[in-house]
């Protein structure tokens, strides 16, 4: 009988590990397209002023001020939490002793320093808001080389990212946690946290040092990265500076131009402190590439001064390595395993130090993307001084390539003189992982189930870099209407307004070849004015 029991245990463990290896991962961050990369907004309203057959030196200054807001919170929620988010809006947290809990979707409360009969519901409505002021300069140097042009633009951006997280607590809990040691036992339940928000945002723990016995000091560490907060996070900065130099083959009814592009990263750098982390720019990537610009006159009425033109513009760049601080899940322990509690092993004296896994899986990594492309097909109708533009924009960024920064000349804690991040990831714990000092309490632990099998010792190979990769793809329609004072002589002012709606692609992540589609759906409005000379 004992043989059969042991055989059954081995089979059960094997099946549980097999199930773990086929988990679908979730996105660990949302990475929107850079605020500088918007070919639709850059092109609209300028058809009478740039890439036109003028003699000698000429130029255009355009200033665009606009506002955008994301419009599909459920898709953002599902990207982060998959099917755990009911209808893409709510997450349920229940202790392991709560009757009727859903072991596939409910989160185990004990992982968040909460009691084992705690119950709450987290509602989420993520929103990204942005205010952009873009200065765009275009210069034509026909006096030097016929068709030579230079373009530079740099948006100043203010952005607010808000999870709109709200916790509704049903049962605060009166029984113990799950580690069976103070302050997690029944006698110490008053020292457990009283809400998920205290764990996820406020960096609180039941008792920071819960045993001071000499040789047996025990510490509970707070969550300091990948935090989820009810309050918005805001940033303001100069987004990437784009600079183009190119040449146009120009005729009255059409033109074709080619240009090279370099992008200097002046925005902000991801540091992993928040799950819903505000970013300005492309994530500190240098970019190099080029593109085309063209137009063809489809129809002209010389008497009434009506014209209809078609414009096709596109650019493509490579995003070089950028060192970023990110937080990763653990291989084999399911999505959101960065929020599991893990314990530290100290020899020869056994202690019990407890920490969210995220504090250990925070890493400085090299991030690159092979291709980013942006293309526009636009029709421009002009009647004397008035122009109306409408068109379609396609944008994509291929799947990121991630690699451990320590493998490429950067120390594991992110400190180096060659451009790595200065701040260590989280409480200095990230440097301890490969020393095999930490373990998952049970081998088949997930955020949904406390598990039952033997503990697993963690090291660097457990970090799921591959499951955290993202890519982007979106479709956009846009329009702009402008008035151009073409009879004003040498200086030609113009003023217009425009709008766009962008639909980001979202798809399921397959375990065998995972790359998360995280493009954000959003709408934008703007006013654009300037002067040509």
Structural topology:
Elements: H1 2-21, H2 39-43, E1 57-70, H3 73-81, E2 90-94, E3 107-108, E4 119-123, E5 127-141, E6 148-162, E7 166-171, H4 196-200, E8 209-211, E9 218-219, E10 233-238, E11 241-250, E12 254-264, E13 287-301, E14 306-327, E15 341-344, E16 353-356, H5 358-361, E17 362-383, E18 386-397, E19 400-404, E20 438-440, E21 456-457, E22 470-484, E23 492-504, E24 516-517, E25 522-532
Can you tell me about this structure?
The protein is mainly beta. It has five helices and 25 strands. A twelve-stranded antiparallel barrel has the order 1-5-6-11-12-13-14-17-18-22-23-25. A four-stranded mixed β-sheet has the order 3-2-4-7, with no helix packed on it. A hairpin with a 6-residue loop joins strand 8 (209-211) and strand 9. It starts with a helix and ends with a strand. The model is unreliable at 1-22 and 407-422 (pLDDT under 50).
| Mean pLDDT rating | 86
Q: What multimeric state do the chains show? A: single chain
The count of β-strands is: 25
How much is the radius of gyration in Å? Answer: 28 Å
Instruction: Report how far the terminal alpha carbons are from each other.
Output: 93 Å
Q: The biggest beta sheet, please? A: 12 strands, antiparallel, barrel
Strand arrangement, largest sheet? Answer: 1-5-6-11-12-13-14-17-18-22-23-25
> What's the tally of helices?
5
Which structural class should the secondary elements be placed in? mainly beta
Order of helices and strands: HHEHEEEEEEHEEEEEEEEEHEEEEEEEEE
Helix coverage percent: under 10%
% residues in beta strands? 35-45%
The stretches of 5 or more residues where confidence is low (pLDDT under 50) are 1-22, 407-422
Shape: elongated
């Amino acid at each position: 009988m004992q043989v059969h029991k042991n055989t059954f245990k081995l089979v059960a463990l094997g099946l549980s590990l097999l199930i773990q290896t086929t988990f679908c991962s979730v996105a660990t961050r949302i990475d929107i397209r850079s605020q500088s990369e918007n070919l639709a907004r850059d092109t609209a309203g300028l058809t009478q002023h740039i890439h036109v057959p003028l003699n000698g030196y000429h130029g255009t200054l355009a200033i665009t001020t606009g506002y955008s807001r994301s419009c599909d919170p459920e898709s953002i929620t599902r990207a982060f939490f998959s099917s755990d988010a009911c209808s893409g809006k709510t997450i349920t947290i229940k202790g392991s002793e709560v009757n009727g809990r859903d072991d596939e979707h409910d989160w185990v409360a004990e992982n968040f320093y909460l009691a084992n009969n705690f119950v709450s519901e987290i509602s989420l409505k993520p929103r990204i808001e942005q205010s952009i002021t873009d200065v765009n300069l275009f210069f034509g140097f026909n006096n030097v080389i016929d068709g030579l042009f230079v373009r530079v633009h740099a948006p100043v951006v203010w952005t607010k990212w808000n999870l709109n997280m709200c916790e509704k607590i049903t049962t605060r809990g009166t029984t113990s946690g799950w580690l069976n040691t103070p302050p997690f036992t029944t006698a110490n339940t008053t020292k457990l946290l009283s809400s998920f928000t205290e764990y996820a945002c406020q960096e609180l723990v039941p008792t920071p040092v819960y045993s001071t016995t000499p040789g047996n000091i025990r510490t509970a560490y707070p969550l300091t990265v990948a935090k989820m907060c009810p309050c918005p996070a805001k940033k303001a900065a100069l987004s990437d500076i784009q600079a183009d130099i190119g040449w146009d083959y120009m005729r009255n009814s059409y033109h074709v131009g080619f240009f090279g592009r370099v992008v200097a990263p002046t925005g902000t750098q991801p540091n992993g402190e928040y799950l819903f982390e505000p970013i300005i720019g492309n994530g500190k990537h240098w970019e190099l590439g080029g593109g085309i610009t063209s137009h063809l006159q489809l129809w002209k009425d010389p008497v009434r001064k009506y014209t209809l033109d078609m414009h096709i513009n596109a650019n493509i760049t490579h995003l070089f390595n950028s060192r970023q601080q990110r937080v990763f899940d653990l291989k084999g322990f399911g999505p959101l395993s960065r929020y599991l509690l893990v314990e530290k092993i100290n020899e020869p004296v056994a202690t019990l130090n407890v920490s969210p896994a995220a504090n250990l899986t925070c890493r400085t990594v090299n991030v690159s993307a092979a291709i980013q492309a942006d293309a526009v097909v636009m029709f421009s109708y002009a009647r004397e001084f008035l122009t109306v533009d409408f068109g379609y924009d396609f944008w994509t960024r291929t799947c990121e390539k991630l690699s451990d920064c320590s493998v490429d000349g950067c120390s594991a804690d992110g400190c180096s003189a060659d451009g790595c991040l200065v701040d260590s990831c989280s409480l200095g714990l990230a440097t301890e992982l490969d020393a095999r000092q930490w373990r998952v309490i049970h081998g088949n632990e997930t955020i949904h189930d406390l598990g039952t099998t033997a503990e697993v010792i963690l090291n660097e190979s457990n970090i799921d870099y591959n499951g955290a990769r993202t890519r982007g793809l979106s479709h956009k329609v846009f329009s702009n209407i402008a008035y151009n004072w073409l009879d004003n002589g040498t200086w030609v002012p113009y003023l217009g307004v425009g709008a766009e709606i962008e639909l980001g692609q979202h798809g399921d992540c397959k375990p065998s070849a995972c790359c998360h589609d995280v493009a954000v759906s959003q709408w934008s409005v703007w006013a654009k004015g300037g002067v040509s000379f």
